[in-house]
Amino acid sequence: MGQLDNKTALITGATSGIGLATARRFVDEGAHVFITGRRQSELDSAVAALGENVTGIRGDVTDLDDLDRVFAAVTARGQGLDVLYVNAGGGAFATLEELTPEDFDATFGVNVRGTVFTVQKALPVLADGASVIIAGSAAASKGNPAFGVYAATKAALRSFTRTWAAELAGRKIRVNVVAAGATNTPGLAGLAPDPSQAEGLLAMLAGTVPLGRLGHPDEVANAVLFLASDQASFVTGTELFADGGQAQL
User: Fold this and answer.
1) How far is CA 53 from CA 122, 140, 190, in A?
2) DSSP string, 20-61
3) What's residue 17's pLDDT?
4) Which end of the chain has the least Cβ crowding within 10 Å, N or C?
5) Angle between helix 64-77 and helix 114-122 axes, rounded to 10 deg
6) With 80 as the cut, is the pLDDT of residue 141 above it?
């Protein structure tokens, strides 16, 4: 038996990296998984790679109409929603001096606003006893130069998680954060100013991890699976670090 047999899950931003690895793990554990992505071609590729028991829905978490379409599709299946992993997000390097209002609004828009309204719109379809998992970051616990806005968004989500865990406790819905450290994903490599600098950036980030390497998306997916499963039935309001000790040591 799989840990998520007969469960229905939704993962936002699941066309690559940690989101895609988690979707694969959820499918392997018996869930039917809805995944979202902004670009149809990448979404189609992810669905094809995952195979059976997956439904792809094109959507942008910053667009409330898109979110309505996503949850209409989940509702139409008629099985409710047992697991919600709000993974869609992103960020870019910018020091305080370099930061523009547009950069600020874009990062808070996808990471905070997008997450808040994804969770809000999920409420009618979430089953009592469901698990909500928010994508956090080890960066929220550090003072990394040029990553202040991104870190602030993840700190905000840590705060929301505590509040939501309290507000939804009456429905036995658990809300937790998985805080990933530097993980070898296309998104991380994409932070380099140009592709030729990506290898150097990844090597530098690996040097900040006490375990001496970048994380693998599957390793973060393992942490998400734990919180999604009944093994975490007495865990809510917490932050689980999957960061190789990056924010701890």
Assistant:
1) 20, 34, 30
2) HHHHHHHHHTT-EEEEEES-HHHHHHHHHHH-SSEEEEE--T
3) 96
4) N
5) 30
6) yes
Give the per-residue pLDDT at 223.
98
24: nearest Cα among 50, 59, 57, 51: 50
C-alpha closest to that of 87 among 33, 163, 139, 22:
22
85 belongs to the catalytic site = no
Cα separation, 74 vs 32, whole angstroms? 11
Q: Do 107 and 91 contact (CB within 8 A), yes or no?
A: yes
Helix, strand, coil shares of the chain, percent, nearest 5, are 45, 20, 35
- pTM of the predicted protein model: 0.96
Distances (CA, A) of 84 to 4, 81, 193, 229: 13, 7, 33, 12
Each residue's pLDDT tens digit, 194-243: 777 888 888 988 999 999 999 999 999 999 999 999 999 999 999 999 99
Domains and CATH numbers, the chain: 8-185+216-242 (3.40.50.720)
